[in-house]
Amino acid sequence: MDATKPTDGVNATGSTGTSFRITEHPIEKSEKTFVQRQEQVELALLRRSQGIHLPLRLQAEKKCLRKVGHLPFLFRHEASLNSLTGRDELIGFDDFLGHRDDPEFMMNPHVILEKGFGLSK
């Protein structure tokens, strides 16, 4: 089954003719929730083998690490959380193509902090 299927009639721009309708890939839904489901499986395995204390401790540590602040001119990389969960050892899409929220230029940190504290005009 193709991801795009030609359809006759009016397309999204309002003109008539053949347009293409983009459908969701069958695996796309599964990939969106993969990390969450993997964490649930790992916590269930730890609960059965170690008891309830270890999954509760890991969840508390993750919650604390998500609250750690950062400077406003830097992208939030969450290095501590990634090392706790083991994601620091994985090479993913963002590692070699960059993250969409990570700017390629360095902003002036003094100007950004002064705006944040309300010191600049």
Question: Your description of this structure?
Answer:
The protein is mainly α. The protein has helices spanning 28-32, 34-50, 53-66, 79-85, 93-97, 109-117, and strands at residues 4-10, 16-22. The chain has a two-stranded antiparallel ribbon with strand order 1-2. β1 (4-10) and β2 (16-22) form a beta hairpin. The radius of gyration is 23 Å and the shape is flat.
Defining key terms:
121 residues; mainly alpha; two-stranded antiparallel ribbon; 6 helices; 47% helix; 12% strand
Question: What is the secondary structure topology, with strand pairs?
Answer:
Blueprint: E1 4-10, E2 16-22, H1 28-32, H2 34-50, H3 53-66, H4 79-85, H5 93-97, H6 109-117
Antiparallel strand pairs: 1-2
Strand % is 5-15%
**Ranges with pLDDT <50 over ≥5 residues?**
none
Count of alpha and pi helical runs: 6
Sheet with the most strands, sense and barrel status: 2 strands, antiparallel
**Which overall shape is indicated by the principal axes computed on the Cα atoms?**
flat
Estimated structural class:
mainly alpha
Task: Work out the helicity level.
Answer: 40-55%
Strand order of the largest sheet: 1-2
How many strands appear in the DSSP assignment?
2
Order of helices and strands: EEHHHHHH
